[in-house]
Amino acid sequence: MFEQSSSVMKNIILVGKPNSGKSLLFNQLTGMRQKVANFPGVTVELKSGKFGEHTLIDFPGAYSLSTLSRDEEIAVEKIHEAMHDDNTGVIVCNLDATRLERSLVFGLQVRDLAKQHDKALVFALNMIDEVGRFSHQVDCDKLSEDLGAAVFPLSAKTLVGIHEFKLALNEVASQPEKYIPRQRVPDDDSVFNVSRRIAKQYGIHADIVLKQQNTIDSFLLNSVLGGVAFFSIMFVLFQSIFTWATPLMDGVESIIGWLAVAVTSVIGQGVINDFLQDAIFGGLGSFLVFVPQIMVLTLIIGLLEDSGYLARAALICHKPLSYFGLSGRSFIPYLSGHACAIPAIMAARTIESPRKRLITMMTIPLMSCSARLPVYALLIAVLIPNTTYLGGLLSLQGTAFFVLYFLGIVTALIVSVLLNKFTENDSDKAEMPFILELPNYRLPHWKPLILRVLTSAKQFIRRAGPVIFMVSVVIWFLGYFPSSEHDLQGSYLSMLGQWIEPVFEPLGLDWRYGVAILVSFLAREVFVGALGTLFGIEGADENIAGLAENIQADGLTLGAGLGLLIFYVIALQCVATVATLKGETGSKKIAWGLFAGYGLLAYTSAFIVSHIF
Amino acid sequence: MTLWDIPAKKSGLISGLDNALLPAVTNRLLEMGLTDGQSVRCLRRSPMNGPVVVQIGDCVYTLEQSIADKVAVSSLS
Ligand SMILES: Nc1nc2c(ncn2[C@@H]2O[C@H](COP(=O)(O)OP(=O)(O)OP(=O)(O)O)[C@@H](O)[C@H]2O)c(=O)[nH]1
Ligand SMILES: [Mg+2]
After folding, report:
1. Torsion-angle region of residue A390: left (phi > 0), alpha (psi -120 to 50) or beta?
2. A217 near B51, Cβ under 8 Å?
3. CA diameter of chain B
């Protein structure tokens, strides 16, 4: 019989205070790309990756072993589990060198727990580059002695000390018994006192680290300037999705147009030519045009998340949001909901109050996610003239974008008030207060940011691309045959369309839009692809003008167009979001109820709008 | 006087937490550094009775009124 070696395949768990750089360290050690951002509560579930032959597990941050919010609850529950698990080889406790005292309160608690369970524990003293900037040196040998566990100074950002840490971690994992903490907080002392004492001895003076942050805050949190700054940032955010991306989008559009001409001229007239032109270049192509917008949106949200401003925005919004029954913490999921509702609903875990968390989750689908971008952009290009003011700084179309986003937010707030009314008589005791740490301002880390932008484009294409491709092909076949002139009005699709037309007629839309709306329940972007194919079949000639021009020429009325926009602002056309809602709220009824409720509201609002204009 | 009453740019020493706070919240506040004798500085107040921004130890936090007014503070300077 072989003895099972204790050295192989152990779990290494990575824990620490929120926003202390755990996930960035995790990424550096595993080569993975977990989300890193500069506010507490980014990681909300356990993530594991490979570190050599070991498994490294990134935890949500926690201030202590007693918990307030759902993400912390998960972290602490799992820490206790890991302590009892034989597979747990090493605990890496991440300390933020700029916030040593706060990091140690949690660190010492975990250390004592590890000692109690005979688990190996090492400290990673992260962000050493930031204290280094103030020429502060930490005597890590002595600190190790005082803490009774090894301390490794490193920076997950500049990579100082990472190589050494990797070597050390392998060594620790192979001989864990040598790294069981040698000390614990004595019974006649408290974790708080020990942390304060050690931080005073080794840490950098708080006033030095906080000076820059406080100076910037005196502008960004100023009662007058702060508000102006907040609205300017939000306006630039939404407007730039339109203005910055336009040149790139034009570029993609001409490349696709050029490709279409090149390919179809080689093939010659016929069914295949028509198919390529209508379904592939018309359908799939009109969707690819919007990739640059997704990238710009991700870039800007990424910049904001990494800068440290989001925690300030949460503070500024707390009071106003509390009138609607929400918390300042709702701001962050709301903002990231503009990229995609799914991670945003997960991010709501950091909201302490269960009721506010529920209301936030239920209203996140009203944030205009990136899947709506193509629909908005297309319809705005059709309906709103391309006028600019102030030398191009302000564009009418960009402003229309802002209005649509704003409309989604306003609807969310109204729904929140209503939901709050209905749940009011529930226990108000479970109300948890708003406490948030304001992190240092940091310059965004460009490499992960660029990677994130590229990933967002890839995901956007991978998620919706296949669906759009299939829908375009199916629609093309149904729309092209059987009429001999390949006329849309004589096609199978048109016959089917007559059936659904009564539903969409009250909105001032004919069956072609009806078909596009119905298939967009698969994914919202499909709307654009489907219309692209339909208008491709109709605009029979070599005319590969943009889809927007085709729709304009076809004559979509302003009322119907605006109604359509409102419909897309409100409707919850995303199965994945419904599934996430079901998972996070634990209720099928809530999830499908929202689907039906928002659908109904969307239809009614579209009806009203189409009759006003 | 409480943490809610400290004027901006003034410091004080924490002298206790109100019993009316939920135990979970009290614990959290202690762990965030709001222990007896800890010095706190009010960095700024927000308009319309919005949350206050305070520096406690090496961290900057923002707290809303419902907790800030349950943290007793003494020896203002
Ligand atoms: N200067 C510097 N910044 C760092 C370092 N490590 C992380 N950061 C930054 O610190 C911020 C927080 O990093 P994360 O890795 O998201 O922190 P976390 O501990 O995983 O946070 P939670 O998941 O919220 O608990 C990000 O803005 C990082 O870019 C470092 O060594 N030096
Ligand atoms: Mg993290």
Report:
1. left
2. no
3. 30
Look up the ipTM and state it.
0.94
Q: What is the DSSP string of A418-432?
A: HHHHHHTTS-STTPP
- Encode pLDDT of A174-190 as tens digits: 999 999 999 899 888 88
pLDDT tens per residue across span B11-47 = 999 998 888 888 888 888 888 888 888 889 999 988 8
The bridge status of strand A88-96 relative to strand A120-126 is parallel
The domain that contains B7 carries what CATH number? 2.30.30.90
Which chain B residue has the Cα nearest residue A105?
B31
pLDDT of residue A1: 38
- Report the separation in Å between the CA atom of A61 and the middle of ligand 2, taken as the mean of its atom positions: 7
- What is the model's pTM? 0.86
CB contact B76 to A (< 8 Å):
no
The parent domain of residue B63 ranges over 3-74
The reported pLDDT for the residue numbered A426 is 55
Q: Quote the CA–CA distance of B48 and A223 in Å, as a whole number.
A: 10
Structure confidence at residue A263 (pLDDT): 83
Give per-residue pLDDT as tens, A555-605.
888 999 999 999 999 999 888 899 999 999 989 999 999 999 999 999 999
Write down all domains in chain A, each with its CATH number in brackets: 11-204 (3.40.50.300)
**Number of structural domains chain B divides into:** 1
Report pLDDT for A3.
40
Closest residue in chain B to residue A207, using alpha carbons only = B58
Task: Provide the shortest C-alpha distance from residue B53 to chain A (in Å).
Answer: 9
Cβ of B20 under 8 Å from any chain A Cβ?
A: no
Q: Identify the DSSP state of A476.
A: H
- Are A488 and A494 a contacting pair, CB within 8 Å? yes
Single out the residue of A231, A248, A262 nearest to residue A296, CA to CA: A248
- Nearest to A476, CA basis, from A536, A518, A522, A519: A536
CB A47 within 8 A of CB A26: yes
Q: What is the mean pLDDT of residues A34-59?
A: 92
Q: Which of B12, B45, B51, B59 has the alpha carbon at shortest distance from A435? A: B51
CA distance A545 to A543: 6
Least confident of A178-182, A274-278, A379-383: A274-278
Among A36, A95, A307, the mutation site with the greatest number of ligand 1 atoms within 8 A of its Cβ is A36
Residues 6+ apart with CB under 8 A from A457: A291, A294, A295
Q: What is the pLDDT of residue A236?
A: 82
Residue A291 token pair: 């990739």
Radius of gyration of chain B (CA): 11
Binary contact (A209, B43; C-beta < 8 A)? no
Whole-angstrom distance, CA of residue A343 vs CA of residue A361:
11
Whether omega before A482 lies within 30 degrees of 0, making that bond cis, reads yes
